[in-house]
Structures are given as C-alpha cells and as structure tokens.
UniProtKB/TrEMBL annotation:
This is Uncharacterized protein. Keywords: Membrane, Transmembrane, Transmembrane helix. It comes from Mycetocola reblochoni. The chain crosses the membrane at residues 7-29, 35-59, 71-90, 96-114. It comes from the Bacteria.
Length: 162
C-alpha cells in the first residue's frame, strides 16, 4: 500500500520530471542536433500524455479515495516511466525505445480510461438501484386491532331517534 501511495504521488511529479529528464539526458548523452529537434518536439507531447494518464487515473473513485494506485496501474506506469527514463539516456537505439515508450503510453492511457468507465458504470448502477428503491412507495398494511370482543359503531350522519 505504501508503494502504491508513493506511485500515486510520483505520477504527478513525473508529469514534469520525466520531460525534464529527457532534455537533461540529451545534454548529458548528446546525440547531435537532430536529437535535440526530436526532444524539443517530444517534450510537450510527453507532458500532455503523462498529465492525461495521471488525470484519468486520478478520476477513478477508488484511486481518489485511497490516494493510491491499484496494482495494475502501478505496474503499467512503472514500465512506462522506466521506458521514458531509458529513452532519456539516448544510449540505445532510439527507434526501439520510442516504440516501447509510445506503446506503453497507449496501454497506460487505455487501461486508465477503461477502468474509469467500469468504475463509473458501477457507480451509476448503484445510484440507479438506490433511486429506484427511494422511488417506490413503502407498502402500507392495516394494523390488526389488538382488542377482542364486541364493537359498537355509531353513525353520526343518521338522525337520532329518541
């Protein structure tokens, strides 16, 4: 649980830290001028992708309530963030690292979106069931009299006979 809470916090920090890492990685492991052009093009897209996945993930009631990621989210985000860190080193073939980074980003986004849809569908079903229960009138039953014996009925609409 502690690791999942730490990853929830890291998810927000990563929106700025990982794009900054790719720029820093370019300066440390310089690969030439065209690499800088690619990095400068990728930075805003990476920020938007990280923020979008973090936002969609945080919208889920379970994640927001516990302030912790679920296990599947944690694994996917760790893999995605690791691929971004590897991309930032510029030590490996950029084609494979970019492909892995993009595919893991798509997996992270669609996983977050699908789980949000499922959670909202569940909440909507709970709300509908509760609304239907409140909408139906309670059943009223006449209580049985608790006395036994003779009963005298006086009709007040009839004139009195004296």
């Amino acid at each position: 649980m502690t690791l999942r809470r730490a990853l929830y916090r890291w998810m927000w920090i990563a929106c700025l830290a990982l794009p900054a890492w790719t720029l820093l990685g370019w300066t440390l492991f310089s690969r030439g001028g065209w690499a800088l052009a690619g990095v400068l093009l990728a930075l805003p897209l990476l920020f938007i992708a990280l923020s979008g996945v973090a936002g969609v993930t945080a919208l889920r009631p379970g994640v927001r309530g516990e302030r912790a990621l679920e296990s599947r989210d944690a694994v996917i985000l760790l893999l995605w963030h690791a691929s971004i860190v590897v991309f930032g080193t510029f030590q490996f073939d950029a084609g494979w690292t970019v492909t892995a980074m993009v595919l893991l980003g798509l997996v992270a986004f669609w996983n977050a979106l699908w789980r949000l849809i499922v959670a909202l569908r569940r909440k909507a079903a709970e709300f509908t069931a509760e609304y239907q229960q409140m909408r139906t009138p309670p059943s009223v039953t006449k209580p049985e009299p608790d006395w036994q014996g003779e009963m005298i009925v006086i009709d007040e609409d009839q004139p009195r006979r004296d």
